[in-house]
Amino acid sequence: MVVRRLLLAIVVAVAGALVASPTAMGATPISVAAAIGQQNGSSATVRGYVVGQPTATNTVVRSNFPNDYALAIADTAGETGTGRMLYVQITASFRSEWGLRTNPGLMGARIDVTGPLSAYFSHAGLTSPTGFALAGGTEPPPPPPPPPGDDYYRTAAGKTGAALKSALHQIISNNSRLSYDQVWNALKVTDQDPNNANNVILLYSGRSQSKSSNGGNPDDWNREHVWAKSHGDFGTATGPGTDIHHLRPEDVSVNAARGNKDFDMGGSAVSQAPGSYTDADSFEPRNAVKGDVARMIFYMAVRYDGGDGFADLEMNNSVNNGSRPNIGRQSVLLQWNAQDPPDTFEKRRNQVIYDTYQHNRNPFIDHPEWAAQIWN
Q: What are the residue boundaries of the Endonuclease YhcR N-terminal domain, all occurrences included (predicted)?
Protein backbone atom coordinates (compact mmCIF):
# COMPACT_ATOMS: atom_id res chain seq x y z
CA MET A 1 0.00 0.00 0.00
CA VAL A 2 2.84 2.40 0.91
CA VAL A 3 4.62 1.58 -2.36
CA ARG A 4 1.43 2.19 -4.36
CA ARG A 5 0.91 5.59 -2.71
CA LEU A 6 4.55 6.49 -3.37
CA LEU A 7 4.25 5.60 -7.07
CA LEU A 8 1.03 7.59 -7.35
CA ALA A 9 2.71 10.62 -5.76
CA ILE A 10 5.60 10.40 -8.22
CA VAL A 11 3.21 10.21 -11.21
CA VAL A 12 1.26 13.24 -9.95
CA ALA A 13 4.44 15.22 -9.37
CA VAL A 14 5.81 14.46 -12.84
CA ALA A 15 2.47 15.34 -14.46
CA GLY A 16 2.37 18.60 -12.55
CA ALA A 17 5.87 19.46 -13.68
CA LEU A 18 4.95 18.82 -17.30
CA VAL A 19 1.89 21.05 -17.06
CA ALA A 20 3.87 23.82 -15.40
CA SER A 21 6.76 23.68 -17.89
CA PRO A 22 6.62 26.65 -20.31
CA THR A 23 8.24 24.53 -23.01
CA ALA A 24 5.73 21.66 -22.80
CA MET A 25 3.70 20.61 -25.84
CA GLY A 26 0.93 23.10 -26.57
CA ALA A 27 2.61 26.08 -24.90
CA THR A 28 1.07 29.35 -26.07
CA PRO A 29 3.61 31.35 -28.09
CA ILE A 30 4.53 34.85 -26.95
CA SER A 31 5.33 37.79 -29.21
CA VAL A 32 8.83 38.96 -30.04
CA ALA A 33 8.15 42.19 -28.13
CA ALA A 34 7.26 40.15 -25.03
CA ALA A 35 10.38 38.01 -25.43
CA ILE A 36 12.59 41.10 -25.68
CA GLY A 37 11.14 42.31 -22.36
CA GLN A 38 11.65 38.92 -20.69
CA GLN A 39 15.41 38.36 -20.96
CA ASN A 40 15.75 36.49 -17.67
CA GLY A 41 16.77 33.00 -18.79
CA SER A 42 13.25 31.58 -18.57
CA SER A 43 12.09 29.28 -21.36
CA ALA A 44 9.30 30.25 -23.75
CA THR A 45 7.97 29.64 -27.23
CA VAL A 46 8.27 32.80 -29.30
CA ARG A 47 6.38 33.43 -32.55
CA GLY A 48 7.72 35.82 -35.17
CA TYR A 49 8.66 36.37 -38.81
CA VAL A 50 12.16 35.52 -40.04
CA VAL A 51 13.69 38.86 -41.03
CA GLY A 52 17.38 38.02 -41.51
CA GLN A 53 20.61 36.81 -39.94
CA PRO A 54 22.33 38.76 -37.15
CA THR A 55 26.05 39.23 -37.71
CA ALA A 56 26.69 41.84 -34.98
CA THR A 57 24.81 43.59 -32.18
CA ASN A 58 23.26 46.15 -34.54
CA THR A 59 23.60 44.36 -37.90
CA VAL A 60 21.16 41.95 -39.57
CA VAL A 61 21.73 40.83 -43.17
CA ARG A 62 18.82 39.83 -45.44
CA SER A 63 20.75 38.04 -48.19
CA ASN A 64 24.14 36.43 -48.87
CA PHE A 65 23.95 34.71 -45.50
CA PRO A 66 27.45 33.82 -44.23
CA ASN A 67 26.47 30.68 -42.27
CA ASP A 68 23.63 28.77 -40.58
CA TYR A 69 24.36 29.79 -36.98
CA ALA A 70 21.63 32.37 -36.23
CA LEU A 71 18.46 34.07 -37.43
CA ALA A 72 16.46 37.12 -36.37
CA ILE A 73 12.70 37.21 -35.88
CA ALA A 74 10.29 40.13 -35.48
CA ASP A 75 6.56 40.72 -35.00
CA THR A 76 6.19 42.03 -38.57
CA ALA A 77 7.67 40.62 -41.76
CA GLY A 78 8.94 44.01 -42.91
CA GLU A 79 10.73 44.98 -39.69
CA THR A 80 14.15 46.62 -40.20
CA GLY A 81 14.85 48.01 -36.72
CA THR A 82 17.20 45.66 -34.86
CA GLY A 83 15.84 46.91 -31.53
CA ARG A 84 12.53 45.20 -32.36
CA MET A 85 14.15 41.89 -33.34
CA LEU A 86 14.97 38.79 -31.30
CA TYR A 87 18.29 37.12 -32.18
CA VAL A 88 17.95 33.32 -32.18
CA GLN A 89 20.94 30.99 -31.89
CA ILE A 90 20.76 27.93 -34.15
CA THR A 91 22.61 25.01 -32.61
CA ALA A 92 24.14 22.21 -34.69
CA SER A 93 21.15 19.86 -34.63
CA PHE A 94 18.85 22.48 -36.22
CA ARG A 95 21.17 24.07 -38.80
CA SER A 96 20.37 21.86 -41.79
CA GLU A 97 16.64 22.73 -41.59
CA TRP A 98 16.62 26.22 -40.09
CA GLY A 99 19.90 27.87 -41.08
CA LEU A 100 19.45 30.69 -43.58
CA ARG A 101 22.51 29.95 -45.68
CA THR A 102 21.12 26.48 -46.43
CA ASN A 103 17.45 27.56 -46.41
CA PRO A 104 17.19 31.19 -47.66
CA GLY A 105 13.54 30.53 -48.55
CA LEU A 106 12.72 30.81 -44.83
CA MET A 107 12.97 34.59 -45.14
CA GLY A 108 9.53 36.00 -44.35
CA ALA A 109 8.22 32.75 -42.87
CA ARG A 110 6.38 32.91 -39.54
CA ILE A 111 7.92 30.47 -37.08
CA ASP A 112 7.75 29.30 -33.45
CA VAL A 113 11.04 28.90 -31.57
CA THR A 114 11.33 27.42 -28.07
CA GLY A 115 14.22 27.96 -25.67
CA PRO A 116 15.75 30.13 -22.93
CA LEU A 117 15.36 33.88 -23.34
CA SER A 118 18.86 35.29 -22.89
CA ALA A 119 21.18 37.65 -24.73
CA TYR A 120 22.85 36.62 -27.98
CA PHE A 121 25.38 38.87 -29.75
CA SER A 122 24.93 41.17 -26.70
CA HIS A 123 21.34 41.63 -27.92
CA ALA A 124 17.94 40.41 -26.78
CA GLY A 125 17.90 36.80 -27.81
CA LEU A 126 16.96 33.13 -27.48
CA THR A 127 19.85 30.71 -26.98
CA SER A 128 20.24 26.91 -26.98
CA PRO A 129 16.82 26.34 -28.60
CA THR A 130 14.92 23.12 -27.99
CA GLY A 131 12.52 23.38 -30.93
CA PHE A 132 11.68 25.12 -34.21
CA ALA A 133 8.44 24.90 -36.24
CA LEU A 134 6.54 26.94 -38.76
CA ALA A 135 3.66 28.67 -37.01
CA GLY A 136 0.76 26.26 -36.98
CA GLY A 137 3.01 23.22 -36.68
CA THR A 138 3.52 22.66 -40.40
CA GLU A 139 6.77 21.73 -42.08
CA PRO A 140 8.86 24.33 -43.95
CA PRO A 141 7.21 25.21 -47.29
CA PRO A 142 8.50 23.49 -50.42
CA PRO A 143 10.64 25.60 -52.76
CA PRO A 144 8.92 27.19 -55.76
CA PRO A 145 8.96 25.24 -59.03
CA PRO A 146 12.20 25.61 -60.99
CA PRO A 147 12.08 28.22 -63.76
CA PRO A 148 11.77 27.09 -67.37
CA GLY A 149 15.14 25.89 -68.55
CA ASP A 150 16.78 25.79 -71.94
CA ASP A 151 13.48 25.68 -73.83
CA TYR A 152 12.07 29.02 -72.61
CA TYR A 153 15.38 30.90 -72.85
CA ARG A 154 16.83 28.85 -75.70
CA THR A 155 17.26 31.79 -78.11
CA ALA A 156 19.08 33.86 -75.46
CA ALA A 157 21.76 31.24 -74.77
CA GLY A 158 25.32 32.50 -75.11
CA LYS A 159 24.38 36.12 -75.84
CA THR A 160 25.42 39.29 -73.99
CA GLY A 161 24.85 43.03 -74.32
CA ALA A 162 22.40 44.32 -76.91
CA ALA A 163 22.01 40.86 -78.46
CA LEU A 164 20.90 39.38 -75.12
CA LYS A 165 18.49 42.24 -74.52
CA SER A 166 16.96 41.81 -77.98
CA ALA A 167 16.60 38.04 -77.54
CA LEU A 168 14.89 38.44 -74.16
CA HIS A 169 12.54 41.05 -75.62
CA GLN A 170 11.41 38.57 -78.24
CA ILE A 171 10.93 35.84 -75.64
CA ILE A 172 8.79 37.84 -73.19
CA SER A 173 6.79 40.06 -75.57
CA ASN A 174 4.17 37.53 -76.67
CA ASN A 175 2.20 37.85 -73.43
CA SER A 176 -1.45 38.00 -72.44
CA ARG A 177 -2.66 41.40 -71.27
CA LEU A 178 -4.93 42.44 -68.40
CA SER A 179 -7.28 45.37 -68.07
CA TYR A 180 -6.60 47.81 -65.25
CA ASP A 181 -9.66 46.51 -63.36
CA GLN A 182 -8.40 42.92 -63.67
CA VAL A 183 -5.16 43.97 -61.98
CA TRP A 184 -6.95 44.27 -58.61
CA ASN A 185 -7.81 40.58 -58.45
CA ALA A 186 -4.52 39.48 -59.97
CA LEU A 187 -2.52 41.25 -57.25
CA LYS A 188 -4.57 39.50 -54.57
CA VAL A 189 -3.10 36.24 -55.89
CA THR A 190 0.41 37.24 -56.97
CA ASP A 191 1.17 39.11 -53.73
CA GLN A 192 -0.69 36.88 -51.27
CA ASP A 193 0.84 36.65 -47.81
CA PRO A 194 2.29 33.10 -47.60
CA ASN A 195 1.25 32.99 -43.93
CA ASN A 196 -2.27 34.42 -44.31
CA ALA A 197 -4.29 33.66 -47.44
CA ASN A 198 -6.67 36.55 -46.64
CA ASN A 199 -3.92 39.17 -46.94
CA VAL A 200 -1.42 40.65 -49.38
CA ILE A 201 2.09 41.91 -48.61
CA LEU A 202 2.59 45.60 -49.43
CA LEU A 203 5.76 46.24 -51.42
CA TYR A 204 7.45 49.19 -49.69
CA SER A 205 5.67 48.93 -46.34
CA GLY A 206 6.20 45.17 -45.89
CA ARG A 207 2.85 45.14 -44.11
CA SER A 208 0.42 42.22 -44.35
CA GLN A 209 -3.00 43.68 -45.09
CA SER A 210 -6.47 42.36 -45.88
CA LYS A 211 -7.06 41.73 -49.58
CA SER A 212 -10.47 43.39 -49.26
CA SER A 213 -9.02 46.72 -48.04
CA ASN A 214 -8.07 47.88 -51.53
CA GLY A 215 -9.23 51.29 -52.69
CA GLY A 216 -8.37 54.95 -52.43
CA ASN A 217 -9.00 55.80 -48.78
CA PRO A 218 -6.24 56.40 -46.20
CA ASP A 219 -4.64 53.10 -45.14
CA ASP A 220 -6.22 51.23 -48.06
CA TRP A 221 -3.86 49.62 -50.53
CA ASN A 222 -3.80 50.51 -54.21
CA ARG A 223 -1.86 49.67 -57.39
CA GLU A 224 1.71 50.98 -57.39
CA HIS A 225 3.43 51.33 -60.77
CA VAL A 226 7.07 50.61 -59.97
CA TRP A 227 8.01 52.06 -63.35
CA ALA A 228 6.06 55.29 -62.80
CA LYS A 229 3.46 55.55 -65.56
CA SER A 230 4.29 59.21 -66.23
CA HIS A 231 7.81 58.14 -67.29
CA GLY A 232 6.77 57.50 -70.86
CA ASP A 233 3.19 58.71 -70.39
CA PHE A 234 1.67 55.23 -70.85
CA GLY A 235 -1.15 55.71 -68.34
CA THR A 236 -3.34 52.72 -67.45
CA ALA A 237 -4.35 51.60 -70.92
CA THR A 238 -3.82 47.88 -71.50
CA GLY A 239 -0.08 47.44 -71.94
CA PRO A 240 2.75 48.69 -69.71
CA GLY A 241 0.23 50.41 -67.44
CA THR A 242 -1.41 47.07 -66.62
CA ASP A 243 1.65 44.79 -66.72
CA ILE A 244 1.62 43.04 -63.34
CA HIS A 245 5.31 42.26 -63.51
CA HIS A 246 5.76 45.83 -62.20
CA LEU A 247 2.41 46.51 -60.47
CA ARG A 248 2.37 45.84 -56.74
CA PRO A 249 0.03 46.46 -53.77
CA GLU A 250 1.01 49.45 -51.63
CA ASP A 251 -0.47 51.68 -48.93
CA VAL A 252 -2.22 54.69 -50.47
CA SER A 253 -0.13 57.27 -48.61
CA VAL A 254 3.17 55.47 -49.28
CA ASN A 255 2.27 55.23 -52.96
CA ALA A 256 1.68 58.98 -52.94
CA ALA A 257 5.02 59.58 -51.18
CA ARG A 258 6.81 57.64 -53.92
CA GLY A 259 4.80 59.42 -56.64
CA ASN A 260 6.74 59.35 -59.92
CA LYS A 261 10.20 59.73 -58.37
CA ASP A 262 13.22 57.91 -59.70
CA PHE A 263 15.10 55.44 -57.51
CA ASP A 264 18.21 56.45 -55.59
CA MET A 265 19.70 56.35 -52.10
CA GLY A 266 18.90 58.64 -49.18
CA GLY A 267 16.35 61.12 -47.94
CA SER A 268 13.96 61.22 -44.99
CA ALA A 269 12.17 58.21 -43.52
CA VAL A 270 8.83 57.39 -45.16
CA SER A 271 5.91 57.13 -42.77
CA GLN A 272 4.30 53.64 -42.80
CA ALA A 273 7.20 52.18 -44.82
CA PRO A 274 9.98 51.26 -42.34
CA GLY A 275 13.40 51.30 -43.96
CA SER A 276 12.28 53.38 -46.96
CA TYR A 277 13.50 56.94 -47.62
CA THR A 278 12.61 59.75 -49.98
CA ASP A 279 13.68 63.25 -50.97
CA ALA A 280 12.55 65.76 -53.58
CA ASP A 281 13.51 63.66 -56.60
CA SER A 282 14.10 60.04 -55.54
CA PHE A 283 12.82 57.11 -53.52
CA GLU A 284 14.77 54.36 -51.73
CA PRO A 285 12.78 51.20 -50.86
CA ARG A 286 13.50 49.00 -47.84
CA ASN A 287 16.44 46.60 -48.13
CA ALA A 288 14.28 43.47 -48.45
CA VAL A 289 12.81 44.61 -51.79
CA LYS A 290 15.62 46.67 -53.33
CA GLY A 291 16.45 43.81 -55.71
CA ASP A 292 12.75 43.22 -56.47
CA VAL A 293 12.40 46.86 -57.54
CA ALA A 294 15.52 46.71 -59.70
CA ARG A 295 14.42 43.53 -61.49
CA MET A 296 10.97 44.99 -62.22
CA ILE A 297 12.65 48.02 -63.81
CA PHE A 298 14.97 45.76 -65.85
CA TYR A 299 11.95 43.80 -67.09
CA MET A 300 10.14 46.95 -68.23
CA ALA A 301 13.22 48.25 -70.05
CA VAL A 302 13.43 44.97 -72.02
CA ARG A 303 9.73 44.31 -72.59
CA TYR A 304 8.78 47.78 -73.90
CA ASP A 305 11.11 48.94 -76.67
CA GLY A 306 8.80 51.22 -78.66
CA GLY A 307 7.68 48.57 -81.13
CA ASP A 308 4.08 48.06 -79.97
CA GLY A 309 2.67 51.57 -79.87
CA PHE A 310 4.17 52.55 -76.51
CA ALA A 311 7.30 54.52 -75.68
CA ASP A 312 10.73 52.90 -75.69
CA LEU A 313 11.39 52.57 -71.96
CA GLU A 314 15.06 52.82 -70.97
CA MET A 315 17.04 53.32 -67.78
CA ASN A 316 19.55 56.12 -67.36
CA ASN A 317 21.77 57.35 -64.56
CA SER A 318 19.69 60.44 -63.76
CA VAL A 319 16.89 61.50 -61.46
CA ASN A 320 14.20 64.08 -62.23
CA ASN A 321 13.35 62.26 -65.47
CA GLY A 322 9.82 63.67 -65.42
CA SER A 323 7.71 62.51 -68.37
CA ARG A 324 10.63 61.20 -70.41
CA PRO A 325 10.49 57.41 -70.98
CA ASN A 326 13.46 56.94 -68.67
CA ILE A 327 14.03 55.97 -65.06
CA GLY A 328 17.13 56.01 -62.86
CA ARG A 329 19.52 55.58 -61.38
CA GLN A 330 20.76 52.64 -63.42
CA SER A 331 23.98 52.27 -61.40
CA VAL A 332 22.04 52.10 -58.13
CA LEU A 333 19.52 49.62 -59.52
CA LEU A 334 22.33 47.32 -60.66
CA GLN A 335 23.81 47.56 -57.17
CA TRP A 336 20.45 46.66 -55.60
CA ASN A 337 20.07 43.67 -57.93
CA ALA A 338 23.38 42.27 -56.66
CA GLN A 339 22.70 43.19 -53.03
CA ASP A 340 19.24 41.57 -52.76
CA PRO A 341 18.93 38.37 -54.83
CA PRO A 342 15.52 36.86 -55.65
CA ASP A 343 13.79 35.22 -52.68
CA THR A 344 11.01 32.64 -52.47
CA PHE A 345 8.22 35.27 -52.54
CA GLU A 346 9.58 36.92 -55.68
CA LYS A 347 10.14 33.57 -57.45
CA ARG A 348 6.64 32.38 -56.59
CA ARG A 349 5.18 35.64 -57.89
CA ASN A 350 7.01 35.24 -61.20
CA GLN A 351 5.68 31.68 -61.52
CA VAL A 352 2.07 32.68 -60.79
CA ILE A 353 2.19 35.44 -63.43
CA TYR A 354 3.62 32.94 -65.93
CA ASP A 355 1.18 30.13 -65.12
CA THR A 356 -2.06 32.07 -64.58
CA TYR A 357 -2.04 35.60 -65.96
CA GLN A 358 0.40 36.93 -68.55
CA HIS A 359 2.18 33.70 -69.51
CA ASN A 360 5.54 35.45 -69.67
CA ARG A 361 8.34 35.71 -67.14
CA ASN A 362 10.68 38.30 -65.69
CA PRO A 363 14.02 36.93 -66.94
CA PHE A 364 15.97 38.81 -64.28
CA ILE A 365 14.29 36.83 -61.49
CA ASP A 366 15.32 33.58 -63.19
CA HIS A 367 18.76 34.94 -64.15
CA PRO A 368 19.69 38.05 -62.13
CA GLU A 369 23.22 37.87 -63.58
CA TRP A 370 21.85 38.90 -66.99
CA ALA A 371 21.38 42.50 -65.81
CA ALA A 372 25.11 43.13 -65.55
CA GLN A 373 25.64 41.38 -68.90
CA ILE A 374 23.28 43.83 -70.61
CA TRP A 375 23.95 47.08 -68.71
CA ASN A 376 27.64 47.05 -67.81
A: 30-132
